[in-house]
Amino acid sequence: MQFRRRPSTPIAPSTSIPTSVLQTWTEDIERARISVEVQGMAVAVVHRGKIIYAKGFGKRNDVDPFTPETLMPIASITKSFTAAAVGELVGDNKAKWEGVPVSEYLPEFQGLPVLDLHWYHRLEPRIELIKQMRHVDAEAPLRSEYIYNNVMVSVAGEAAARIAGTTYEQLVLDRVVRPVGMAETGFSNVTLQTRPNHALPYMCKSFRDAQMGCNHRFPLDTLPKSDAPAGDLHSNVIELANWARVMMHDGELDGKQVLNKESIQTIKTAYTITSRAPRGPEFSIGAYGLCWGIEHYKGRPTVQHKFAGEYTHPVAGRIIIETPKEEDDDEDEDAEDGTACHLKFSFNATQGKLRHYHYDTFVFSNAARDAVRLEMIVTFLPGDDGSVQQCRLFYDPDPIIFTRTTPSAVNSLGGAKKYLRRKKLLSRVDWL
């Protein structure tokens, strides 16, 4: 598949991150790369909708430097493109997230097995492998638990291709990759190895090699991937940073809606708990959306596990939480390190900002705008499904517990009114 080259997205100078901090990033990343014996890598940072940092480290082979434009397999990030392609068909009213069995779109599909190894280096057409799945029992009932499953994502990709009347690869290129402007992104290592600026894999042949820090270069695996919808794309960090921008802005890039907004919001909504125990003291419990892992880090949602929504109490009234728009963040940047974080807060007729304090805890104060001083601590708590279900307001000795009345699909562009306009969004999924 040929693409028309276009200039790389320019790196925007940061007005909030000092140059000395960026230099520290470079030094820290290079030190970490060397310490764990990574041959080559690249890092890009998106801040307030712009790429402010992109740099390569080490080498892409034995000789050439690894640059931000160096192409490499992106493995399971491919899954998010598959989900987006399905979402475009949902936006066209050609498919539904829920209510229609996948087998109606793809009659050959029956069963819910976990068969990742069974599909490894298989040369048969993907649809023939899907036909065999009916002979294997499901590992667990549908929606009962989280099971990482490349084959099921591949089924979704094949079903989407059947709906669109094309191949899976062509569907993703036409409906996702090209609209986002990812001119260097494509499928298959066969194509990748023909590109001049591509990286080669390095790994240790034994545990002793790993102890000695001895990496060996290997050729790219060029056998066809039967589970291509789960991991066959290649790209570079510049284009992946733009992909992140599209995801963070609900399908919008540089002021243009390039992917279906409602579908991207659905993709980023949590549906299954992946871990009931946080993986560290600064993290929330883990959840999974449609091919996106979702959690909080230091109170910040890493994809879309949002606090935003409406919370009510039978006596104390109503609280509405909204995530600020980027321009609101710009106005609020008064922390010395440029990391001010707040939520928009409405408590009955009282309005203001919640400033992040610790993990899922925020602080409200109206001291700057009201003669009657009101200071409160607000903490958000998740329910059994991983979504935020309660807002606890600490003012008197005992907290006032507000219960969420809008589902977790309320997002950063939301608030109650926008949620009501979108309330037909489905909250359960048959696809992935």
Write the layout of secondary structure elements.
Elements: H1 19-35, E1 40-47, E2 50-58, E3 72-73, H2 78-91, H3 102-105, H4 126-131, H5 150-164, H6 168-180, E4 186-187, H7 189-192, E5 202-203, H8 207-212, E6 216-217, E7 233-235, H9 237-248, E8 252-253, E9 256-257, H10 261-267, E10 272-275, E11 286-288, E12 293-294, E13 296-297, E14 300-301, E15 309-313, E16 317-322, H11 326-331, E17 342-347, E18 350-358, E19 361-365, E20 375-382, E21 388-394, E22 400-404, H12 416-421
Antiparallel strand pairs: 1-2, 3-7, 4-7, 5-6, 8-9, 10-11, 11-12, 13-14, 15-16, 15-22, 16-17, 17-18, 18-19, 19-20, 20-21, 21-22
Helix pairs in contact: 2-5, 2-6, 2-10, 5-6
CATH architecture term of the domain at 296-421: Beta Barrel
The computed structural class is: alpha+beta
Return residue spans where pLDDT drops below 50 for at least 5 consecutive residues. 1-8, 326-340, 407-432
Estimate what percentage of residues fall within beta strands.
15-25%
Helix content: 25-40%
Order the strands across the largest sheet as they lie in space: 15-16-17-18-19-20-21-22
Distance between the termini: 27 Å
- Morphology: globular
Number of helices: 12
Mean pLDDT: 80
The CATH class of the domain at 296-421 is identified as Mainly Beta
Largest sheet: 8 strands, antiparallel, barrel
Any idea of the CATH topology of the domain at 296-421?
A: Lipocalin
Count the strands?
22
Rg on CA atoms, Å: 23 Å
